Amino acid sequence: MKDSVSVLIGGKAGQGIASIETLLTKGFKRAGFYTFSTKEFMSRIRGGSNTTLIRISKRPVNAPVFKVDIFVPLDTDSYYHAQERIGEETFLIAKKGDFECDCTLYDHDLPALAKSIGSPIVSNTIAAALVFGLLGYDVGILKGIVTELYQDEMLEMNLKALDIGTQLAEDNGQCRYCIEPNLSGASANDLFLSGTEGVGFGAIAGGCNFISSYPMSPSTGVLTFLAKQSRRFGICVEQAEDEIAAFQMGLGVWYGGGRAITTTSGGGFALMGEGLSLSGITETPMVVYLAQRPGPATGLPTRTEQGDLELSIYSGHGEFPRIVLAPGDPKECFELTRRAFELADRFQVPVIILSDQYLADSYFHTEQFTIEPKQPVHHIIKTDADYQRYSLSANGISPRGIPGYGEGLVLADSDEHTAEGLITESMSVRNEQNGKRLQKIELISEEAIVPEVEREGDIIVLGWGSTKHIIQEAVERVGDERVTTIHFSWVHPLSESQLALLREGKQIVVVENNATGQFAKLLKQHGISIHAQILKSDGLSFFADELSEKLAFALKEIR
């Protein structure tokens, strides 16, 4: 008996991998399990070799593993694509003779069985029922889900497919990987959310009423999510002609008193650099969702990496404040996106939410959390006739008016400007206005979120953004009592309140999904000593079992 099981489904785009994922994840959740799923796929509409990993457990589990317990390859290529993930303990569900491995083979020709009831397309449903049955669970749960998803002929065909899969499971007898759900733990009311959905819900809660984006994977999911919710929540949706236009439209909305977001990935964000500077000098709020993928250039457009931290911090010419947030799971995606709108509005700066393909497209078991029922606070004043948009203030924040709300004229310009908003080349005014803008950095730093700390020890294993749960499980697997884990979700600007624990003389291991250790470099700029780094930049996220081995090796070197 195990406390968790990993199931890998492989096949071409168009073979119905997403349908199996939907059936199994919904089914496992309804059966009372903690469930997690993630996917990796090639950059093509049809074909290629793609996989979806599903983990179920009787305890919370929110990280991928490399080695799998059950593997269902829907075609030959997917088997060889994932061959390294198969071990002696793996159960392989495939036609005998198609593959050779040291694993346990369940000899079934799923496409032929599906064709016998009308269409090879339902081989994925047979596979789902077989996996569900092999693990010892009532396939009646899947029948209920199929009834919700399909109608007419497709419903009848999928129900027949479930019956075939159920019979195959019974014929194969008891599975060594049967586990019992923890009915006192996982609740039917718990959420099963992706990072994309977390950001989308957070934008709605933050008062977003406009989104303008040029589609770019892996950020497009937030655009389509908000488009689906647009009528219900009064959100104007614009698919822009390019990323430059998308950003500038968002600035115009904020200038007029609305709340906008734009979504993009690294290449699109590079095009937004000039707009980011325009936001900086005009002190116009803006929120950007930057879902990272490997570069440079087009790079690996459907893979994952934490390679754009420095881009987000240093993009845009000139010096001006900005905030960069990096959530680690859907709950943080919700909370930080909601907060991003408030921070942008209050400090009149651009706020960048850093995600990546892994976080965006993975589904996490999330305990139902309380959403504070507060209306978004708008930091907008009603102007008088003598209103000055960029008046000097003690804290660097000028009262923000919007056109048509009051008697004042609201001027904004990309040139350096006077307090009224008029173009100037006065050096003294330049020093005043530039100093006023930079003065906000200290105020913003006071809002910095203190990193999340787990366990107490003399060695710190530190990560940021999407590595959160992977690091936590890897450390748990290693079982070294010397280790403390620290997760940063607010990555710029860093404050002393965030760094204090790192200055206590403890040895620090930084884990990052990039090749150069971008966050480690940032910490070094603040005088933090880094003793070891574990980096990965092959286009995949870390795996908890893989990272635990690397951590164990690194910890042996630390005395």
Describe this structure as you would to a colleague.
The protein has 4 domains: 4-171, 3-Layer(aba) Sandwich (Pyruvate-ferredoxin Oxidoreductase, domain 3); 192-366, 3-Layer(aba) Sandwich (Rossmann fold); 380-440, no CATH class; 452-556, Rossmann fold. The protein is an alpha/beta fold. The chain has helices at 17-30, 76-81, 110-116, 123-134, 140-149, 152-171, 195-205, 220-228, 230-233, 243-255, 266-271, 273-282, 309-314, 330-347, 357-361, 427-445, 468-478, 496-499, 518-525, 544-556, and strands at 4-13, 34-40, 47-57, 70-73, 91-94, 104-107, 191-194, 210-213, 236-239, 260-264, 286-292, 323-325, 350-356, 363-366, 452-454, 459-464, 483-488, 490-492, 507-512, 532-535. The chain has 20 helices and 20 strands. Helix 1 (17-30) packs across helix 5 (140-149), helix 4 crosses helix 6 (152-171) and helix 10 packs parallel to helix 12. The radius of gyration is 26 Å and the shape is globular. Helices cover 37% and strands 19% of the residues.
The CATH superfamily of the largest domain turns out to be: Thiamin diphosphate (ThDP)-binding fold, Pyr/PP domains
Portion in helices: 25-40%
Average pLDDT metric = 93
Q: Given the structure, what is the number of helices?
A: 20
Q: What is CATH's topology name of the largest domain?
A: Rossmann fold
Biggest sheet details:
7 strands, mixed
CATH architecture of the largest domain: 3-Layer(aba) Sandwich
- Total beta strands: 20
Please tell me what the overall shape is: globular
Count of spatially separate domains: 4
CATH class of the largest domain: Alpha Beta
How widely separated are the two ends?
A: 36 Å
Q: Detail the poorly predicted runs.
A: none
Structural class: alpha/beta
Rg on CA atoms, Å: 26 Å
Order of strands across the main sheet: 9-8-10-11-13-12-18
